[in-house]
Each structure stands twice: as C-alpha cells, then as structure tokens.
Amino acid sequence: MNVLITGGTGVVGQRLAVILLNEGHQVAVLSRDKRPAHAGVATYQWDIARGYLDPAALAWATHVVHLAGAGVADQRWTEARKKEILESRTRSTQLLAEALKAKPNQVQAVVGASAIGIYGHDTGQAQLDENSPAARDFLSEVVKAWEAATDGIAAAGYRTVKLRIGIVLSHHGGALEKMAQPVRLYTGAALGTGQQWLSWIHVDDLCRLIIYGLENPHLQGVYNAVGPQPATNEQMTRAIAQVLHRPVLPLNVPAFALRLALGPLADLVLGGSHVSAAKIQAAGFQFKFPELGLALRDLLKP
C-alpha cells in the first residue's frame, strides 16, 4: 500500500508510520511543513486555512488515514480553543473529501479517526456500542460534526471506516504519561470517585486496527477502537503502580480540586465511559494487548 497519513506527526501517526514501513508499505504524510517528518516518509503539503492540498499526494496514495485534529486535552477550553478543536477536524475532513472528489485517483479506502466522546464524557456504568445514542455535550457535538464530514468521503464512493478511538496508551506522551507521572513521584491516587470507566487501547493495537481497516474490504462504517477490557480509574492507577513498584495514596484526589486546577477539562478525568469492542472483534480483529497489565508492562518497561 501507499498510505497517506494526515496528523502524521502525532503520537499515533508516528507509530503508525513505523509499523507500516516495517511491514513493507510506502508512507507519506500531509503537513503544513515541507520538511520530511522522519526517515523513509515522504511529505506532501496542505494548508487547511487556504483550502490547499497538493494533488500529487492523492495521485500517489492507494490508501488514506485521516488523523488530523487539535489536541482535546492540551489546553484549557476557551471559546477560541473550542473553535479550533472543532474546525481542525471538520475543515480538514472537508478539504480531504473535496480533494478526493476533484480528480481521478487510485485511493481504495479511507480510515478516519473519530472518538468515543460521541457517547458523552460521563456515561456511568452503561455499556456502550456503536448503536448507542450520541450525547449533547461539547465533545459529542464535535464528534458528530467530524463524522458527518467523514460521511462526505463515503458519499463520494470511497470505502470509509470511522474509528471511534478511546484513551490511547503509548510509549511516549499522551494519557499514560500523565497518569504515570504522579505514580512515579509517589503521589499516585485515584481521581474523584475512581469508579469512572476508562476505555483504553494500546497504541500498537490501534495502529494494527487502522491497518486492518485499510486492508480488509469487508470493513465499512463505524467501529469502536478500544480494547476489550475497560478499567476504572482506580484500577488503572493501581495497575500502573504495580508495574512501577510504587504505592498508591489511600485518599482519592477530590473532584473540587481537579475542577479548580483544570476548569472544564476536569470533566475528562472525572467522567468516563464503558465502551464495547465486540463489533470489531466480530469483524475478525484480534488484540495483541487485550489485558491492561499486559499493555502496561509493555509500555512502562525500563
């Protein structure tokens, strides 16, 4: 495959490029910067604000992975930041859809990122699948608009897979680094009640799932990209502590302290959702890291 990746400089995009190259595929990224992202990866330019996408990129690609989007938890949610979170996803997807429609190309499939945030930031103990209703909070509205833009690619006749991605656990950066840091410093503790569900996935399983979506023509539509065994916040904290050989503080971090420190972003850590991976498993995908302990031992090893 010739795989074109948007958002190729992020944690998932970089790891995906490495795995694809190791499997013998060709990889290129779409970037505002013409400089190569990393060795063995070509770079094509696009400019979302100007509505420009180098036509040579889609002339080269046989498959596309669309991961671009501003980080949800990177900054406080000012109105300007909320607008950026939304438009970085919808406008980039619309630009890609328009470019795919504009000229004949050899693209066979598009795998687009989505998020389990569509179900709501705090769904309690309910088990959710792809047919569960969307919520009405900020992130849910973002994801609905994002998926609607991706539907424009499918409407143009391309096989399109939308992956509702959960909490990605990776070797470098991302959620796991933030959760592990206080544990390393002997200040690890569950957050809020500690009973909120975290639907996580190992970054390598996510990358393998993306490739599975590219390669298998029977996949189309929406799939949850989460591991098969979600964990509560308390379970996650204790599992990280066990791998790192650190204690966990007996008292949880209270919700009011998190709201003072994080503002609206506190909802992301105080809430959670129990999301099912049954549909993608029924489609034949097998997880390499189905268990939390197995994933953490791989990711947190010295």
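The above is record 1. Record 2 follows with the same two-line structure.
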Amino acid sequence: MSHENRDSQAKWTGVFPAATTQFKPDGSLDVPATLKHLDVMLDGGIHGFVMLGTVGENCSLEKDEKLEMLRATVDHVQGKVPVLTGVAEYTTDQACRYAAAANKTGVDGLMVLPAMVYKTDVRETVVHFREVAKATDLPIMIYNNPVSYGVDIKPETFAELADEPRFTAIKESSEDPRRITHLRNLCGDRYQLFAGVDDLVLESLILGIDGWVSGLVNAFPVENRLIWDLVKEERYKEARDVYRWYTPLLQLDTLPKLVQYIKLAVAECGYGSEQTRPPRLRIEGEERERVLSIIREGIETRPDPATFGM
C-alpha cells in the first residue's frame, strides 16, 4: 500500500480514536472484531487511529499480538487515514526494538510514552525519546500524561527536543489547559498539539490545538466529529451545548477504570465487547449500574447532527 503519510514532517489533524483492542470471551485477541469497530469509527468521520494506546491495552498484549494487530489494521485501513501505534515499554531498549518492528508493519507513526514503571528525571526522559527516534524513520507523537505515568514533560523540555525532526506532535494530557498556550508561546507551531483529556477538549480547541486523541470516540464517533466541526466553523454556542451533553460521558475517560468504562460504552452502543484482560475485570454491582446510567442517558439524549446541518 501507499505510505504517503509516512514522513518525518507528517501533518496530523482532527479526531484520532485511541482505539480499543477487542478480545474473544476466552481473552484471546479478536482481530476481526477490532477491525469491524474501526469501520464504525471511519464511517463516523474520524481522521486517524492510535492503536495500542492505554485504551488499546498495550501493556496487556504480547509483542507478536501487537504486531499482528498493526499489520491487520494497516492492511484494512488501506491508507484512508493515518495509523499510529502506542509505544509503551519498560526500558528504552525495548521501546527502540518495538518501534523498529512497528515500522515494518506499515504504520504511519508512533505515539511514544515515557518508559513504564520507573519515573525518569528530565535528562533520562530526553534520552529515552531521542533513542526511540533513532530507531525508526517514522514521525513521533510524544505522549505527556504525568497523571497516569508519573513523568511530566514540561514545555521547556519540548523546546529542548525540538531539534529532532521526527518529533512531530504532542499529546498533552497533563490536565492543565494552560500548557497549550505555554507550548505555543515557547515553541510556536513547531509541534502539532493534540488534546489527550476528553473532558478538557473544548477548552483545548479554543486555545488552538490541532487534534484530539479521544477515548469516548470509540462509542460516540459521530458526536466527537460534531464537536470538532462546530468549533472549526466557530459555532461556539452550539459546540458548548453538545459538550455539556457529552461531558458526563467524557469524564469516564479520566478515571482509573477508563478502559472498562469505555469498552462498556462500546458494548452498549453495539460496536464490540467489554471484554478486557486481567487484572482489569468486568465492572459489577453499584459501580456498573452507575456507569451504565451515564452511558444510557447519553445514548437516549444524544444530539442529532442533522439539526446542526451536518
């Protein structure tokens, strides 16, 4: 297939699902179900995919399963939109080896996380990302999520990393929208900035992001695209109204069990299974009823894009 998006200066923009990975009832990888779900999101108008991120249960898959999933995705998507893969490994060497292997599957880019478990300092963080960049010719989105992973890549560090052309984009998930303005003031348009926290996306859009890596888009792709389009058309009041409807759902993306909650929403919408791999277990009892009530309320009251002329 053509890899027109595969260059170190790739320009990514729009709504990028952090796609779920579907499993069979016995816990084995379900590639056809995952691809079927990707089609639902493509039909909803998304602009790209991030496979095997946190929502895709990266650390719950074996390396050969990850590569199988990437090859199947690239073959299935056929260049319609860019396909990125998460790189979330325990050591820098492992991240480099995985990046090199992912490169061979035909993906269009990498979303690279800091090394897992060990909390690197600034010097170690910089070396980790630079070494991964040496291992591939793919453009890289650097994922900053200090809330979940304990490593905060601050704007000053991104300015230091700006001399590496493979660093194309930043997924900013610090839960501080002020970072968007700080990054723009410090780095200009050097990086494409992506929001990574679902319930801060409208604030981030107003501040001038280029894209949105989303979790709840797995269940509500049309609605994600609706917010995106309304803001791009500067229809802010309508975007705010949709955002207020969406916020209780988007907040499910910010909690420790976000994978289970998002997969439950996917299942309720009829797009896939809620099956996860342990230690993540099926949510039960009062917690299940509480989350289901949010999801079902959202489904029942979802906005109709036709009323916005879309």
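Confidence is low (pLDDT under 50) at residues 1-7.
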